[in-house]
Amino acid sequence: MKKVYPNKEVCIGCHLCEVACLTAHSKSRDVVIAYKEEKDAQGLSPCKNVIHDGPACVALSCRHCSEPACVAACISGALTKNRETGRTEYDEEKCVGCWSCLMACPFGSIRRHPIKEKIVKCDLCAGRDIPACVEVCPNWALVYEDRGEK
Amino acid sequence: MKYLIIGNGVASLGAIEGIRVTDREGAITVISDEPVPTYGRPLISYLLAGKIGKERLALRDDAFYAANKVTLKLATKVAKIDTKAKAVTTEAGEVVAYDKLLIATGGVPFRPPMAGLEGEGVYSFTTFAHAEALAEVAGRVKKAVVIGGGLIGLKAAESLFDRGVAVSIVELAPRVLSMAFDDKAGKIVSERLGKIGLKVFCNVSAKEIKREGGKIKGVLLSDGAFLDADIVVVAIGVIPASSLAKDAGVKVDRGILVDDHLAASSPGVYAAGDVAQAPDMLVEGTRVVPIWPNAFNQGYYAGKNMAGDASSYHGGLAMNSISFYGLATTSVGLVNPPADDAGFEVHDVLNPEAGTYRKLVFQGDRLVGCVLVGDIDSAGLYTGFIRFKFPLDAAARQKLIDGAPSILMWPEDFFDENWNPVGAKETV
Amino acid sequence: MAFTPISKKYHDFQVVRDKDACINCQVCVRQCSYGVHTWDENRKCVVHDNSKCVGCHRCEALCPTDALLIQEKSSDFKANACWRPEFIKYIYKQAETGGVLLTGMGSPVNIPVYWDRLLLDASQVTNPSIDPLREPMELTTFIGSKPDSLTFEKTPEGPKLATKIGPQLRINSPIMFSAMSFGSINFNLHIAMARAATELGIFYNTGEGGLHPSLYKYGANTIVQVASGRFGVHRDYLNAGGGIEIKIGQGAKPGIGGHLPGEKITAKVSETRMVPLGSDAISPAPHHDIYSIEDLLQLIFALKEASQYRVPVGVKIAAVHNVAAIASGIVRAGADYVAIDGMRGGTGAAPGMIRDNVGIPIELALAAVDQRLRDEGIRNQASVIAAGGIRCSADVVKAIALGADAVYIGTAALLAVGCTLCARCYTGKCPWGIATNDPALAKRQNPNKAAKQMANLVRAWSHEIEEMLGGMGLNSIESLRGNRDKLRAVGLSQTELDILGVRHAGA
Fold first, then answer.
1. What is the CATH class of B122-236?
2. Which of B41, B45, B59, B324 to mutate against chain A (most A CBs within 10 Å)?
3. What is the ipTM of this complex?
4. Calpha distance A99→B250 (Å, rounded)
5. Is residue A77 pLDDT above 70, yes or no?
6. Chain C neighbours among A 44-73 (CB < 8 Å)?
7. Structure pTM?
8. CATH assignment of B326-419?
9. Least CB–CB distance from A19: residue in C27, C438, C439
């Protein structure tokens, strides 16, 4: 399956991937409206997270692991593994906000929603040809391709 | 290939997925004495509290079982297993043959010998049926005593309280959640519950349930105190439901003994979940660690091995995430090392005003345990350090203690292997 | 702002922020290496300090809502044709610092760009043009010494060439990447040029920063430079390249040596150049073992010996007044090619006075050199490479028509990877990651992306050259070389026309 692979050698820490991610998951799909209205009012936040350590930085999001620790931990069946697409899928309606997945994911890829008792996790931009983060990265630090992982 | 799974807890779901990753064709049958397909057992507290309806309980929809070609035999109790004939017999007399058997019968609530325990008004809280029974009676009672301040007890108490029942919790240990937390974290939780209105009594045990004309009057404690109650919930532990296995000659210790392929002593027989005594990620030897993700993972690896993929199970890891009225808490790994063991180093940071607590347990140069109260955002990152067993130098250790774990601290090649395989080491 | 010295108040640029579009995402804060944009915790928004803006456009380029515009600041001095604002500001700065004014990139002065006065011919009717989509177009060029005559011998298989031809650089297109030292620019761009040159079948030049061993594998497409500081020069270095170039001078700063400020020397630069960390790496003006043309001959042959005569050895000079005579001497000294760098050539660091006032335009120098070598009957003995402000494929065609065998592109290659000619290369803070090896900034040039951009540029120009050649009725670059008749000029004096050897349009 195609996954998003981050190359930390060329990540420039600009956070444009976070901007694109947030916009792609907004209702308006308009970056200005998403930031000025949806972000604080509705707790809209990006699934992408750029981490820094001195000059080093990299943009991370859910790895859609072949053996997802979050799916194993989920008590409500909100997180499941789709063996056809390879994606780890999240059904917000089923989620009860227990944070077991957040605790279980050793990659730190799951975060709490700022307002609701729900989580925020990358969905590989279902509905887009190329994930928004990959498309916007100005330095080709995010690569979307199939490297033979399931 | 005929796969048979006894028990429809979350281990059975893991097993179905594990089997199907390898074998898309072999028939899978799940036999369970529960009347409904696999449900999120921890959700029963949400159900009792009225936060969700029972339509939210099922972990997977019907399409899942159809797509995975699984036959469910629900409300069916297995009477015996014949490992030589490779068949099980149900109480109704039906004989079901198998090629590979997974015993995932889970645990049963432990009922201590106690005067007054027999009779109506005493409840357990581990199944959907228990939750329905309590939900039915909750509207008609005023006071409840919950014996046991562990995960199940606290959740039962919370749920009843949300239904308008006055609740008192009785805990033998010096603190609630004695397994998952230490004194400091336990105290924060007790204080929170107390603020909300639940009563917590530690360092006492329940001596006797007093009745009058068959109806419960209250509970007499070991220190002489008496708590009024209309109902009593017993939540002092769960023990593996291993009798079927034992009777069939499968080796059982505290739970059904399995190796790192989840295989039990009899050929073709596997065990997973709360009933299994399996290898541990952090500690030598096998343990029963009745934790939700362990059950799923054990089921998954048992499934893979049953289908012929001899993958090694990475071992169980204790972990719990529970929130109490908005106070989030997580506990992962070895969080209560023996105080006199010099091999462990404990660092904790308590912030009473913020209501946050962070406790890290190191063994040698590795992180082996982490408790977070209040501020749980980095819980997963700490879990990563525990699971992947990264050796930590002084600077790295300090970063974790200061609450700043980061994936950029990972060893280079581990990072590349997991996040950017193949493409990472591009040559100049 | 208070606390800003007066010399910094008359800054050149201002940031214009569209408040309706600004989403306070802070990409500009993170990307500006001069600290122009900052997050104001009190106002809870991004604010900017115009006095720090150098006009590099990095923030504008990356802003996700196009909320930023960089404009030349509107504070005006009283109009004065003599005391133009830049001279006024130079003096303010020097009064404060007492220092030499440094600058980067090529000279922006307002003297004629002769490429813009030269026009190309096209075929019509009597001499039909050639369709490059149907006929093969030969752009392949050989850089090196050509023999005075060819002799053949009879063999049973037919006639065979008896004359020994010296080593040549074979390039698929008459464009090569100019010398830009590792240290003045990002190592990632050396990787990119090496890869692009290999893919295109051309060469790139190491410049005077030495060659890192990890790039030896691209040696077949590398020209290794021996400059006056002899940075990084050792036997393996000389044998690693497909060509060797002695750098006598550079178009941006004729007469003086190279200068790499200490701030720009990282561990890798230090290792590759074989210089210590922290102190400026200054190459002396002359090679201290070349004080006459005979000395140069000695060095040329010493290098040929050291490389077993396997590769061409060329000499790079700046375009100065007597460039024709100098070039003649160099050819006679045994150089396989002469590279002439005009006054518009770029640099990572040079005193502004020298960059803007020393040297002559490449167009005039090239024409003069080509003509002198032809007059002396030695034009074949060395190839001529032209450099210094080659901006487009038309400039390449005109350069070849004036007599060049090939051109070097430096500034154009950097523009291809994002450079905006803000000319602050000497600070080591290039926010495009081009003129720096600071780890945080150097990452901004992804070698894969840069290689693709540079290769795209040369490929695009090569296609355009094929079109122009075909338009002129030529199918080989050889037929264009020195073919002054394919050029006409407009608006030039007779003296300029004579030096260029080109007739006026209409004549």
1. alpha beta
2. B59
3. 0.96
4. 37
5. yes
6. 55
7. 0.91
8. 3.30.390.30
9. C27
